[in-house]
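Sample pair:
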Amino acid sequence: MNLFDSFRQALPLPEFLAKYGTPADRSRWEAAKTAITLSDAQKQLLAKFTRETNVLVLAGAWCGDCVSQCPAFDRFAEAAPVLKVRYLDRDDYPDVQQALQINGGNRVPVAVFFSEDGAEVARYGERTLARYRQLAGQMTGDGCATGLGLHKDPVQAQVVQEWLDEFERVQWILRLSPRLRRKHGD
């Protein structure tokens, strides 16, 4: 399966949410995006990105993990216009869902990074290491998350940074690619 063909069908976040999200979903995504702020250092890093990077995100408007993570991608794109982030609904694209399974399961969000000309560069997804550490601590430690009530997420800034680290890693792969350096003469 050529996943870059799926990228061409994918939607920018506002259109994705308009099509797949309920009013309550859209409100949750907007609140999450409002809560995500990038540090000056993160903005300066993103401003240095020069290679167009196409990012296909398999997501669900209903998905809590997507709500907490994906709005960061649009914050990244605001600071680095070379990032083209697009979304596909997991349930509306079962072939993409199957191609992007993690550990044999249908997981979201999953991001697939492509060069400007559609070569797949990397895949990353579901949850970051910081989130998994938090969940493991809750499941094996004294605390157990109930999911009730809104609270300040103590690891959200780490989650955003870990996603940014992956976006940066992909940017360096693209920037230092001999093929793309020849193409751009740099």
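Residues 145-150 have pLDDT under 50 and may be disordered.
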